[in-house]
């Protein structure tokens, strides 16, 4: 149950899902109609590409998969655990995600495949920022698992089990954010092409600043309570 889920988790999940949907829509529209925020489609393309495409194209897909893995590895190194918790270096990782997106813009506007790899690494980094919170699996760069979990919850409800409204709300916010991000990304891509990635990069920076302020205030309140008890 997530009855005590802090609001910052819900807001952050929505915004991060919006960022991922935006990045992925730019990928679908500009990377040869290829998704980058999740790997299922890319892995399938790699499998078919081994038979139907050139070695260069297949190797490019392999590097995208590897880049996502490396981005997730960076988060795994600095977070040191999957559960969401105040005080962890989320702000620093969000700044790094923004830097990766800035690098992606630089290379993509020069028709360099390096831009694909940096964008994929940014998504891998974001998706690994948090694994669970109070039993809820949180993935912000794709929604397949979210729909699956919602379906399981609905089935359990029909069987007579308690329905966790708070967890369902979290999942619906992630789905909504991803869809809204996709629409926003398509619109921005029609206007600015790959420069549209400045928007998710800017959102990451803004979110990092907000988290830093929130965390600092929370620490200050904790210290005040500790002194008062002493």
Short account of what is shown:
The protein is mainly alpha-helical and 230 residues long. It has one domain (16-229).
Structural account:
- The protein has 230 residues and is an all-alpha fold.
- It has one domain.
- Helix content is 74%, strand content 2%.
- The protein is built from eight helices and two strands.
- It has helices at residues 7-30, 40-52, 55-79, 90-108, 114-127, 144-158, 165-192, 198-229; strands at 132-133, 136-137.
- Strands 1-2 form a two-stranded antiparallel sheet.
- Strand 1 (132-133) and strand 2 form a beta hairpin.
- Helix 1 (7-30) runs parallel beside helix 7 (165-192), helix 1 runs antiparallel to helix 8 and helix 3 packs parallel to helix 5 (114-127).
- The longest helix is centred in the last third of the chain and has 32 residues, at 198-229.
- It starts with 6 loop residues before the first helix and ends with a helix.
- The mean pLDDT is 86.
Structural class by helix and strand composition: mainly alpha
The share of residues in extended strands comes to under 5%
> How does the major sheet shape up?
2 strands, antiparallel
In one word, what is the shape? globular
Uncertain parts: none
Relevant terms:
mainly alpha, single chain, 230 residues
Secondary-structure map:
Layout: H1 7-30, H2 40-52, H3 55-79, H4 90-108, H5 114-127, E1 132-133, E2 136-137, H6 144-158, H7 165-192, H8 198-229
Antiparallel strand pairs: 1-2
């Amino acid at each position: 149950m997530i009855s005590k889920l802090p609001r910052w988790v819900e807001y952050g999940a929505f915004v991060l899902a919006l960022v991922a949907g935006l990045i992925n829509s730019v990928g679908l529209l500009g990377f040869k109609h290829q998704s980058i925020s999740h790997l299922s489609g890319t892995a399938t393309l790699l499998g078919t590409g081994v038979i139907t495409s050139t070695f260069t194209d297949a190797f490019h897909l392999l590097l995208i998969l590897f880049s996502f893995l490396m981005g997730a590895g960076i988060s795994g190194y600095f977070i040191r655990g999957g559960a969401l918790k105040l005080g962890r270096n989320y702000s620093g990782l969000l700044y790094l995600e923004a830097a990766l997106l800035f690098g992606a813009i630089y290379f993509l506007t020069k028709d360099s495949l390096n831009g694909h790899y940096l964008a994929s690494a940014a998504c891998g980094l974001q998706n690994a920022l948090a694994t669970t919170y109070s039993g809820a699996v949180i993935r912000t760069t794709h929604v397949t698992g979210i729909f699956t979990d919602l379906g399981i919850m609905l089935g359990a409800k029909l069987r007579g089990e308690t329905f966790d409204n708070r967890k369902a709300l979290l999942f619906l916010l992630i789905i909504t954010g991803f869809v809204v991000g996709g629409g926003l990304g398509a619109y921005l891509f029609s206007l600015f092409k790959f420069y549209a990635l400045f928007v998710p990069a800017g959102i990451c920076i803004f979110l990092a600043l907000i988290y830093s302020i929130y965390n600092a205030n929370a620490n200050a309140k904790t210290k005040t309570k500790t002194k008062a008890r002493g």
